[in-house]
User: What shape does this take?
Amino acid sequence: MRKLSLVLGCAAALFAGSASAELAIVSSQSDFVRLITGKTLSRPLIKIKVAEDGRISGKGALWAVTGDWTWRDGFFCRSLYWGGSELGYNCQEVRASEGRVRFTSDGGEGDSADFKLN
Assistant: This one.
């Protein structure tokens, strides 16, 4: 039960704040791929790789993060699993600037999560 509570409590941090004017919208798959290629997306307790071939892998807290992604209608759309729990499918707005990327769930209308690009 504790793991489930942690999963639900941290789900927004795994690719889910408010939009910032300094971050530019990433509107094409090719721009997104250039942004993430060879990089690790990180924030406290989370390190994730989003691969050009559509795979997602890494760790969130102590549990494995896996999934896959596609680019659809200007949005990053992903299916994600964290510690064996399905977080589901969601299409997200992507914004980026100088070593930072922000994912905002529900097509830019939901929760946001900022990551450093290392």
Q: What stands out?
A: Strands lie at 24-25, 41-43, 46-50, 55-60, 63-72, 75-82, 85-97, 100-104, 112-117. The first strand starts at residue 24 and ends at 25. Residues 42 and 84 are 20 Å apart (CA to CA).
